[in-house]
């Protein structure tokens, strides 16, 4: 599964994307796995209310299932316009 | 409907003229342009805009398609830049065309409200004195969606 990070999430974790092998059933489970990896992940995912998630380029929720999902992106609330 | 996500500057006059020429029977054309403002009296050196290639185009297309369903539009245009922009540079524009101005104005506002908080762009302010800050999303931007 490809995981992408944007804006300060990318900066805090230190990379824009990576491939992850996971058996996580939901986004929340994936986040728990990432948090356990290293301090920089724990810092980036400390407050999920400050984050948004997209599954295969569609905005989604943290309790959403990951069945068949190929691309997960984590980022802060968007500030376009 | 035309959606452009690009690093290069765009010509506001040329884009507006081309858009209006394509909807000659419409009667009402509204354009809005967003410009990098210097919020802090000379404190801003540049604005860096990051986006999510692929999702950005999909999200903008979905927002514009929804606007075309809700209002009777002859056409809609969204141009949004990314990369490093100086104060005074144009970030983005939307244009809408309809038979009557109410549709054109409302659809343009809808496009702006949605692309502010539902299209994957993130702004970072590069400060003249050194340092940089990610622009935080405002509650007011999220609240603005509720009226639609």
Rounded mean pLDDT of chain B is 95
Question: Largest sheet of chain B at a glance?
Answer: 4 strands, mixed
CATH class group of chain A: Alpha Beta
CATH H-level superfamily of chain A: Beta-grasp domain
CATH topology of chain A: Ubiquitin-like (UB roll)
Give the overall silhouette of chain B: globular
Write down how many β-strands of chain B occur, each being a DSSP E stretch of 2 or more residues.
8
What is the CATH class name of chain B?
A: Alpha Beta
Number of domains of chain A: 1
Uncertain regions of chain A: pLDDT < 50 for 5+ in a row? none
Tell me the structural class of chain A: alpha+beta
Count of discrete alpha- or pi-helical segments spanning 4 or more residues of chain A: 3
Beta content of chain A: 15-25%
Please bin the fraction of helical residues of chain B. 25-40%
Radius of gyration of chain A, whole Å: 12 Å
Low-confidence parts of chain B: none
N to C succession of SSEs of chain A:
EHEHHEEE
Topology:
The complex is a heterodimer of chains A (81) and B (148).
Chain A: E1 2-5, H1 7-13, E2 17-19, H2 27-35, H3 39-44, E3 52-55, E4 58-60, E5 71-75
Parallel strand pairs in A: 1-5
Antiparallel strand pairs in A: 1-2, 3-4, 3-5
Chain B: E1 2-6, H1 12-22, E2 28-35, E3 44-51, H2 55-70, E4 73-81, E5 83-85, E6 90-98, H3 101-118, E7 121-127, E8 132-134, H4 139-143
Parallel strand pairs in B: 1-4
Antiparallel strand pairs in B: 2-6, 3-5, 3-7, 4-6, 7-8
Helix pairs in contact in B: 2-3
């Amino acid at each position: 599964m490809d995981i992408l990070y944007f804006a300060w999430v990318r900066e805090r974790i230190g990379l824009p994307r990576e491939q992850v092998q996971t058996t996580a059933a939901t986004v929340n489970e994936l986040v728990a796995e990432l948090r356990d990896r290293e301090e920089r992940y724990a810092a980036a995912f400390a407050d999920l209310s400050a984050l948004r998630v997209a599954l295969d380029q569609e905005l989604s929720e943290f309790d959403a299932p990951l069945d068949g999902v190929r691309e997960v992106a984590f980022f802060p609330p968007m500030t376009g316009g | 409907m035309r959606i452009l996500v690009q690093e290069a500057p765009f010509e506001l006059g040329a884009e507006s003229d081309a858009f209006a020429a394509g909807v000659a029977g419409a009667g009402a054309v509204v354009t809005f342009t967003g410009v990098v403002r210097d919020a802090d009296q000379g404190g801003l050196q540049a604005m860096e805009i990051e986006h999510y290639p692929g999702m950005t185009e999909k999200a903008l297309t979905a927002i514009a398609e929804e606007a075309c369903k809700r209002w009777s539009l002859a056409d809609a245009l969204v141009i949004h830049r990314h990369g490093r922009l100086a104060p005074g540079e144009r970030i983005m524009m939307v244009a809408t065309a309809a038979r009557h101005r109410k549709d054109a104005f409302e659809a343009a506002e809808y496009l702006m409200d949605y692309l502010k908080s539902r299209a994957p762009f993130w702004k970072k302010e590069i400060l003249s004195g050194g340092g940089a800050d990610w622009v935080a999303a405002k509650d007011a931007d999220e609240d603005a969606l509720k009226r639609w």
